[in-house]
Amino acid sequence: MSSSLCSSLSLSSPSINPKSPIRFRSKSMLSTIRCAVGEVIAEPKAVSVAEPLLLNAVRGEKVERPPVWLMRQAGRYMKSYQLICEKYPSFRERSENVDLVVEISLQPWKVFKPDGVILFSDILTPLPGMNIPFDIVKGKGPVIYNPLRTAEDVDQVTEFVPEESVPYVGEALTILREEVKNDAAVLGFVGAPFTLASYVVEGGSSKHFSKIKKLAFSDPKVLHALLQKFTTSMAKYIKYQADNGAQAVQIFDSWATELSPVDFEEFSLPYLKQIVDTVKATHPNLPLILYASGSGGLLERLSLTSVDVVSLDWTVDMAEGRKRLGADIAVQGNVDPGVLFGSKEFITNRILDTVRKAGNSKHILNLGHGIVVGTPEENVAHFFEVAKGIRY
Ligand code: CP3
Asked: Atom 46 of ligand 1 has which residue's CA nearest to it?
């Protein structure tokens, strides 16, 4: 229903922006919000229940509300996850044991019923399968024991064979599909070549990215060789995830935005495009979502990758992002994760503002980056309740 058809809203809550062309229903907050067209109350058209809402939305089909999930929705803000961490203190164990991966992936599903259930894993999980050992150390984050800096180091990187190195990923995705059925989309993910390279060259997380930039700007051939290896392996990994149950796959190029646009065009964009083209050649209907944090300066270039969805971070205004990306591409995002520390009323208003700016198709509601540790679970519950009560 377009905003012009639905300009008169009757609202019973003072917290809702009356200019909003969307309707919102919530057990706890509102009794009725209706959109009247003449004397007739416009009800959302029945949509196919055969496919998860998220997939319908990405394809631009008519949906009654935006699908919603949250980046890092499985993890440390949940008490139930912290209990598992006490019993299994190693991140690698938690993310490489099928039963634990399934249990942790389903924790937010059981409580919040998001429209996307993302596999509990990490972008670094494939590294040991490429002969790059790593760990995630509490208080320190990712650690690469032998950072790669030379042509000889890059030569040692082997091609990833997912079924041999990470069979637990395929098994977990298959179980997740059985558990979730078509009530939500099961989401896989991979790290983008430049972001993976930033970890393995820097040796872990980085503030200034000086080591990878030294390599890029003094010995680019070596970095290109590494990026090509990650590209080939990640394209294979996406196909493996799809073949084992993932219904959409998100590519995280979290740190690509550390690059100037001209360097993004050399060290990230061609590899992202190659991944998309390789995957689409065999899996043309698999939706691919691309996320880069702080991407305002790169939006138009992100859409050149031919991904289906660009996931916006919260520093981009949703309406402006939409305009810059064009109508063909779907958008995801982009509520500031910090909003989840705000009042319930603030959270509600920010969700509605985002949904209104995104328009009534091709939008997946999400945060602009992962949930922050310490986010109150009740605010996450409120986020989902509001989001799922929306009607276009
Ligand atoms: O979204 C989800 O719920 C799926 C789980 C997920 C994790 N990592 C689990 C995790 C996803 C999608 C990721 C992706 C990831 N990992 C990215 C891209 C997303 C982004 O944030 O930009 C990046 C850059 C990484 C690398 C990484 N792994 C970092 C920076 C950290 C945090 C380090 C720290 O301790 O603060 C990790 C570890 C990690 N991966 C955690 C979780 C839940 C926290 C450690 C733990 O739970 O013990």
From this structure: 91
Predicted confidence band of residue 25 (pLDDT cuts 50, 70, 90): low
Q: Which of 170, 195, 383 is nearest to 290 (CA)?
A: 195
For ligand 1, whether the C-beta of 142 sits within 6 Å is yes
49 pLDDT band, cuts 50/70/90, is low
Full set of structural domains in the chain with CATH: 53-389 (3.20.20.210)
Residue 295, class by beta-carbon neighbours within 10 Å (0-12 exposed, 13-18 middle, 19+ buried)? buried
- Residue 263 tokens read as 């360097």
Kindly report the number of other CB atoms within 10 A of residue 151's CB atom.
12
Instruction: Say if ligand 1 is within 6 A of residue 205 CB.
Output: yes
The residue among 382, 391, 282 whose CA lies nearest residue 63 is: 391
Residue 142: enclosing H or E segment and its boundaries?
A: strand 141-144
**361-389 in b/e burial notation, b at 16+ Cβ within 10 A?**
bbbbbbbbbbbeeebeeebbebbbbbbbb
pLDDT one-digit tens code per residue, 94-110: 999 999 999 999 999 99
Residue 13 predicted with pLDDT over 50 = no
Q: Tell me: pLDDT of 29 over 90.
A: no
